[in-house]
Automatic annotation (TrEMBL):
Domain of life: Bacteria
NCBIfam families: T_den_put_tspse
InterPro entries hit by this protein: RpnA (IPR010106)
Upper lineage: Bacteria, Pseudomonadati, Pseudomonadota, Gammaproteobacteria, Chromatiales
Protein name: Rpn family recombination-promoting nuclease/putative transposase
């Protein structure tokens, strides 16, 4: 953050509100801006142990081996809370994935059933048309063209029905 040579060895900064004309007059300790350059502080390692533990947490929270060496209780509690939240997130992810898979399976089954019903209806209509053609042929009153027009079958199909009836 601060690049000047004399500032390269400092990672913790405390800025206070002061009067420009009278720098000895400050607004009070209540209004301060504390800045911690995390990477620099981690690299320099010159801060109090508690602050170093928090910096390590923010910089290395994904690294179990690094985080297991810190014994500062509030940081350990934060690590445990983060692990619990991560586990909950993972559990939620897998639960949502399972729900999605079940919905997808149900959708596929429904589509397959509807497709099967359509195929069944189509076959039923074809069988009914063939049955009607057989009955009309049995009556002997119509020619194959007329039977094809009535049943919706093609002339070739009517001829096939007639041929299948002949011994």
């Amino acid at each position: 953050m601060f690049d000047a040579e004399e500032q390269s060895k400092q990672a913790l900064w405390c800025f206070e509100m002061r009067d420009r004309d009278h720098p000895e007059v400050r607004l009070g300790r209540e209004l301060q801006l504390n800045i911690v350059e995390l990477r620099k502080a981690d690299r320099l390692g010159q801060l109090p142990e508690r602050l170093s533990a928090w910096i390590a947490y923010f910089e290395h929270w994904r690294e179990d081996t690094t985080m297991s060496t810190h014994t500062y209780a509030p940081v350990q509690r934060a690590i445990e809370k983060l692990r619990a939240l991560s586990a909950d997130e993972e559990a939620r992810y897998w639960a949502e994935a399972r729900e999605k898979a079940l919905r997808d399976e149900a959708t596929l089954l429904l589509e397959a059933r509807e497709e099967g019903e359509q195929i069944g209806l189509q076959k039923g209509r074809q069988e009914a048309a063939h049955e009607m053609a057989r009955n009309l042929i049995k009556l002997g009153l119509l020619n194959d063209v007329q039977i094809a027009q009535i049943t919706g079958l093609s002339l070739v199909q009517v001829e096939a029905v007639r041929a299948s009836r002949t011994p």
